Amino acid sequence: MERPLDAALQRLAETDVLLVALDFDGNISVHVDDPQAAGPLPEAAEAIEALSALNRTSVALVSGRAIDSLIAVSGAGDHILLAGSHGAEYRMEVGAPPLSLTADELADVERLGAILREVASRHPGTAVETKPAGHALHLRNADDDVALDAQHDVRRRVLASLPGVTARPGKDVEEFSVMAATKGDAIERIRAYVDASATFYSGDDVTDEDAFRALHDGDVGVKVGPGDTLAPFRVPAPTDMALVLTRLAELRAAFVRSR
Ligand SMILES: [Mg+2]
Question: What is the domain-level CATH number for residue 111?
């Protein structure tokens, strides 16, 4: 691990109340062709369990996945806080009401689905994922030229029919939602919920930039993989992120024991 990152982790580990917030896919899990076959790297899962067991330390997963999908692939127990659908859905308070949409919003979700299914039917290898507040068109398994054509097609059609929806272009995915929530909103909300004095965040995709933007002085942001980022630190791959989390868990455990 590079020395500046290690030094930042040492400072972070000595904060009063620590929030460790993590993107899931491509961050603590490797991207796979079948999204339902994803799972956390064992070393990352171990570090998450170790961190969440420590006093005044909380772990949250902040994902574009719907909460149900996130629970299924992450195996996250109730001690892990969850933000799904890019901050439109949460699992924090026990018994909290599920996401509720207005009749107009539900109608827009339906219309989005119809547009995306129509585009997918003409572009082999693309697939539609239904979420509580929107739909996503997955391009990962389509040939490059087909994916590019589907991307242009779906953006044009959604913009023409549903100009009020939020578009979230990602890695090999075009997502649209009737809710404008971002991962930055998720960071704000979870930070306030646990009353964190400092936050760690890591992620690999474009939508993670909203979360990096929401970080304060003294927080630590780590981008995984290539691409422009606001994060001050970067590691190449999820296996490296697992090492970062293992190191943070060691440092935090030592600090919690010492006070
Ligand atoms: Mg990701």
Answer: 3.30.70
